[in-house]
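Bump. Still looking for Ras association domain-containing protein 5 structure tokens.
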Amino acid sequence: QNVTQTVEEEKPEPPTVQEIKQKIEKYNAKVTNGLPMKLNDDGSYTGFIQVHLKLRRPVTVPAGIRPPSIYDALKEVNLAEMTDKRTSFYLPLDAIKQLHISSNTTVSEVIQGLLKKFMVVDNPQKFALFKEMRKDGQVLFQKLPLTEYPLYLRLLAGPDTDALSFVLKENETGEVEWDAFSIPELQNFLMILDKEEKDKIQQVHKKYERFKQRLQQTLKEARGKPG
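Sorry for the wait, here they are.
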């Protein structure tokens, strides 16, 4: 059962550098994937988080643009700015993206970084980062504030992703705010919905056509039986 929590927890007092050092040592002792956290001289630290993409609606990307290469990333080439043409498609459901971030990286920056990596040009406000926890057979989701620090949450929970994982989902605030979408985005949504509707109608037709054929065959066999 999935349960979404919307109540924000009260934040404890910030830990000291010594406390952070002890937590990192304890965290690294449990790491099995070769990706430990590293404490910097200024008291900040770096590490890795994994984010599951669970987007139910299509995203908007530049049309006809190849995925970014390592060269593009090193040169900070923004392929999305090289064309004004846009198209929409569904990102693979439950895809996982690994990010190297610092203790100063906020939820807002993580969302923007993910969108940039996938060349998504939608408004970042359309998305939200959730923390996923498993407790007593339930899967609990809690929306994270934009000012939260995901790496600190990862440090507190330890490296076990069953204890805590991060999920990128649509920013559900009730009714869909269609005004936030551009005309091309809305047109693409209509095209996708029209295709899904036609596919669904075709599936229903095929289902009842098979049912009709079986019924006719049964009637034919029944008429051929004596008595």
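The beta strands are 2-5, 38-39, 45-53, 59-62, 86-89, 95-102, 127-135, 138-143, 165-170.

Edit: fixed formatting.
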